[in-house]
Write a structure and sequence with these properties.
single chain; Immunoglobulin-like; mainly beta
Length: 260
């Protein structure tokens, strides 16, 4: 039997273990900075040059009014939660990541975040909080109403979305869900002759689609806007803001719609 030179050679199992450790170390130290989520292997960005919401999932229904939103953003940037009729909330992206606790109201909660004062960086999340007090029926996912976008709305929907205390403005009908390259619409009711404007905010900023110009309320105070959703619009939920004024009175309302 011959003799081995240079000491004992590693056993086969030891060589395999050493190779596996070297591969793991190379992946863990990859300069890409990508973290692999435990379980499904989904890559999670370690940072971003724009604001991204990671959790929770858009359109989720929860029962706990306390919820923490997490995401990624440029290192050290000011992440702002836009709060209507209140003080905006702020947090700082540390290590390219950010998180912010929010308190939900019963029903739909449209949560809008942006970087500092840059409105074009806005990202929006729809979270529905089911009813409290043991109402298990309300915990079921809310069905999405899909009205005929080509039909003129002729009845009021129970959606009191007025946020202006001076001039009452409310959304009466709107497209809840629409496919790309299809038409969406929003109808509001204000005062007769009021001058009204609409702002549909996508990930890239305010829409410039035909049909979203300023309008005057008709004899019944109604205004309807219709516009085509672009074929390259990202799927998701987007906010719609309406502002009306008449003389020295002003009011506003907001709603949202989903691109599927």
């Amino acid at each position: 039997m011959g003799t081995r030179r240079g000491g004992l050679a590693p056993a086969p199992n030891a060589r395999i273990g050493l190779l596996a450790a070297m591969v793991w170390f190379a992946v863990a130290c990859s300069p890409s900075g990508t973290i692999v989520a435990e379980g499904d292997g989904t890559p999670v960005p370690a940072g971003s040059d724009r604001l991204i919401i990671l959790t929770p999932e858009d359109g989720i229904t929860v029962t706990d009014p306390q919820l923490t939103i997490t995401g990624v953003a440029p290192e050290g940037s000011d992440v702002v939660r836009v709060v209507s009729l209140g003080r905006d909330e702020h947090t700082t992206a540390t290590g390219g990541h950010w998180s912010m606790p929010v308190e939900l109201d019963p029903g739909d909660n449209l949560l809008t975040f942006r970087l500092g004062t840059d409105a074009t960086s806005s990202s929006t999340l729809l979270v529905t909080m089911a009813g409290l007090g043991g109402d298990t029926a309300s915990a079921e996912p809310r069905p999405i109403d899909e009205p005929d976008a080509t039909a003129e709305p002729d009845s009021e929907a129970p959606e009191p979305t007025s946020t202006g205390a001076d001039l009452p403005v409310k959304v009466t009908k709107h497209t809840s869900s629409v496919a790309r390259n299809q038409t969406a619409y929003v109808t509001i009711k204000a005062s007769k002759g009021a001058s009204c404007s609409i702002d549909v905010v996508y990930d890239s900023g305010s829409s410039t689609a035909t049909g979203l110009g300023d309008k005057k309320a008709d004899g019944s105070g109604a205004v309807t806007w219709k516009w085509k959703v672009g074929g390259r619009t990202a799927k998701g939920t987007y906010p719609v803001y309406v502002t009306c004024e008449k003389g020295d009175r002003e009011g506003d309302a907001q709603t949202s719609f989903r691109v599927r």
